[in-house]
TrEMBL record:
Pfam families: Phytase-like (PF13449). Residues 38-275 form the Phytase-like domain. This is Phytase-like domain-containing protein. It comes from Primorskyibacter flagellatus. The keyword Chloroplast does not apply. Residues 1-26 form the signal peptide. Transmembrane segments: none annotated.
Length: 295
């Protein structure tokens, strides 16, 4: 979701002050540098190369790749090394200005195939290379899908099935969790909403559960949390909150769940700076403990 400039200006003070310099609360963070020019609006992320690399998407209609560094298991830096435009089925670069390039959700298969969900013109495209996007079956038309409230959370399970959750609830509560099965999107569960938290990112963990990143926009900043959801239960699901820091880490919109060399489950998130220098944009990372909660 793109924040309106007026809202972003109100939020910048708390977010900017707390994003990088505030220690503790189970997370480490770093800004993202770039060797390929100005980047921003990062809304989805996948960690690669055992934690040493990343792929991300921007809501300006491009995909970025880069490297990550750590020291003692803590984030110390991230650098963008490659930038490519997202393209349609004909190989034409997507134009955000016409509502076609507002990329929000990112999921990656072990083969490297990328899946991207878009707002505005709500749809999901697959990319085997940077040349052309393959259009997945149309998403169902449901109430609540405004130009800035579409399918932000996208993930792929171990059976290569895509799962998506829209940002806004069509009828208040609960919200359908959709899975792509045999050429059509099917509701596999219904997510109970709580407070003003809205889904912004998702990924499946090594335990097979869906981890959902949610954001709440407040007058003086952002709040984020992660919920663990067992889709095998079906029906109405609420899940378990595994991370809910009392401080703001910026406008967190993308989530990647992965296992490091020590067998620890890590969750790496990316913040959308809305292309505003006053808002923070970078990576935030937590490690789950044995109970499945953020350290």
């Amino acid at each position: 979701m793109r924040l309106r400039p007026a809202v972003a200006l109100i939020l910048w003070a708390l977010a900017a002050c707390s994003f990088v310099v505030t220690p503790g609360f189970g997370a480490t963070s770093t800004a993202i540098d770039s060797k390929v020019g100005r980047i921003g609006g990062l809304s989805g992320i996948e960690v690669t190369d055992g934690g040493a690399g990343f792929v991300a998407i921007s809501d300006a209609g491009y995909v970025v790749r880069g490297t990550i560094t750590r020291s003692g298991g803590r984030l110390t830096g991230a650098v963008v090394t490659e930038l490519m435009p997202l393209r349609d089925k004909n190989g034409k670069a997507l134009d955000r200005g016409k509502g076609r390039g507002d990329a929000e959700g990112l999921a990656m298969e072990p083969s490297g195939r990328l899946h991207v969900s878009f707002e505005g013109m709500n749809r999901v495209l697959a990319y085997d290379s940077g040349d052309k996007g393959l259009l997945h079956p149309p998403l169902p038309k449901v109430p609540g899908l405004g130009s800035n409230a579409g399918f932000e959370a996208l993930a792929v399970d171990d059976q290569r099935r895509l799962v998506t959750v829209q940002e806004e609830s069509p009828d208040g509560d609960p919200t359908p969790i959709l899975r792509l099965e045999r050429g059509r999107w099917r509701e596999v569960a219904a997510l109970v909403r709580s407070g003003d938290f809205r889904p912004t990112g998702a990924d499946f963990g090594p335990d097979g559960a869906l981890y959902l990143l949610e954001r709440e926009v407040r007058t003086l900043g952002f709040r984020s949390r992660i919920r663990r959801i067992d889709l095998s239960e079906g029906g109405t699901v609420e899940g378990t909150v595994v991370w809910a820091p009392p401080i703001s880490w910026g406008n967190l919109e993308g989530l990647s769940v992965w296992t490091d060399e020590e067998g620890q489950t890590r969750m790496t998130m990316v913040a959308d700076d809305n292309f505003l220098s006053i808002l923070p944009g970078g990576l935030v990372e937590i490690v789950l403990d044995n109970s499945g909660r953020g350290l």
